[in-house]
Amino acid sequence: MKAYDVKKGNVVEHNNGVYQVRDIERSSPQGRGGNVKYRFTMYSVPGGTKLDVSMGAEDELKEVELSRRQATFSYKDGDAFVFLDDEDYTPYTLDADVIGDGAGYIVDDLAGCYVQIIDDQPVALQLPQNVAIEVMETPPELKGGTATKRPKPAKLSTGIEIMVPEYIGTGEKVLVNTTTGEFAGRAD
After folding, report:
1. Could you tell me which of 39, 42, 46 has the C-alpha nearest to residue 25?
2. Calpha distance 111→45 (Å, rounded)
3. Does this model's pTM top 0.85?
4. If exposure means fewest CB atoms within 10 Å of the residue's CB, which of 48, 91, 129, 135 is most exposed?
5. Mean pLDDT, the chain, whole residue set
6. How many whole angstroms separate alpha carbon 51 and alpha carbon 95?
């Protein structure tokens, strides 16, 4: 696969190691004929050793064959998160460092997750696109401020903070995009 096809969560082979892509930075030079560069932040699988790699858009990366099992978050065991396979209820335990920033999106009974497995070992987690999380604390709406769209900070039940529109209040559930970490609407 070409560097421009790589997405967050993909597992690729690089220098005889297996890595999961956790972050992608794209830089396009302003001049004519400038080549787009991609900077990948990858973590070794298993192990979690960080590696930063820069590549051109046409550079090749080999995607690693892995199995993906749909799972639901069951409970937290110390720092580890335990997911149950939706079909056969196999428990998959993933450490907090493997999940990384995604831990802030894991709520009770979170369904639609995919546990990525290489050689019968759970190595990574793919979260659903949007997750409903309760707002624990946010400043009250300013009266008369409805004409402008001013975002305000909101602390969510999982501990993360995002910016939400002014009309969102404490106790409401909001959808959060797990890729961008941004507000994606009200949850039902």
Report:
1. 39
2. 24
3. no
4. 129
5. 85
6. 19
